[in-house]
Amino acid sequence: MPAIASNVAVPLAGLVDTAALGHFSTATDIGAVGLGAAVISTLFWIFSFLRAGTTSLVGRALGSGDKSGAVRHVQRAGALAAAMSVAWLILMWAVVPAILHLLAPEGPARDAALTYTLIRGLSLPALLVTLIVAGYFIGAKNTRVPLVVASVQAVANIVLDLILVGGAGMGAAGAAWGTFGSEWIGAALAVVLLWRRLEPAQRVTLRDWRDATLRRGWGHSRASTARSWDAPRCSRPW
């Protein structure tokens, strides 16, 4: 269930936005959010490997009793997420308009979809943080925290949509800002819960970004994988 909640968080946000606009806005805004939500869900799906990868590495480290190593994997995932976020925040201003230009004719709906998608795109760093934390907890066999984060994020999305779309009448842009806010709320909650669940020694490790093992670990996993493939296999007794 937590893994499912993490995977459907982005498309679910689009459905909430569409539902809010269906009650409080125009057909143009509904069409714009439907298109924008489909685009942003597809683009953000590319980054979903971060949760599965973190889960695998953290589970392996904790299974061998290496609690500090598990935190190092979270740090490496965070560094990768930061690099991808910077690249995305630079490229999205060209990528998103190009995609919408192919998918929709020129007009108010496409303009509103562009605004919606670009605002939603600003929340990618928050999404990646949430994926990393969910990956850590699932790897640690704690499935409650990711579910709590996903639930709080969904409720926040509904509340913010009601305020910005229903109350302020901001249309598609209001729905986008509501989802943006809910995703950052979810990321902040995820970080707080991770920090509170870590042991004191793990917190010290998490604060240390200059340790040599943090840099060497990028190649260590690949080397270990290569050795496992090169190792001689046991012959069958028959």
Describe the structure.
Helix 3 (49-63) packs antiparallel against helix 4, helix 5 (108-121) runs parallel beside helix 8 (171-197) and helix 6 (124-139) runs parallel beside helix 8 (171-197). It contains ten helices and no strands. Mean pLDDT is 84; it is low at 221-238. With 238 residues, it is mainly α. The protein has helices at 2-24, 27-45, 49-63, 67-103, 108-121, 124-139, 144-167, 171-197, 200-207, 212-230. It is elongated, with a radius of gyration of 21 Å. 38% of the residues are buried. The protein has one domain (2-217).
Key words describing this protein structure:
238 residues; mainly alpha; disordered C terminus; transmembrane
Task: Describe the secondary structure blueprint for this structure.
Layout: H1 2-24, H2 27-45, H3 49-63, H4 67-103, H5 108-121, H6 124-139, H7 144-167, H8 171-197, H9 200-207, H10 212-230
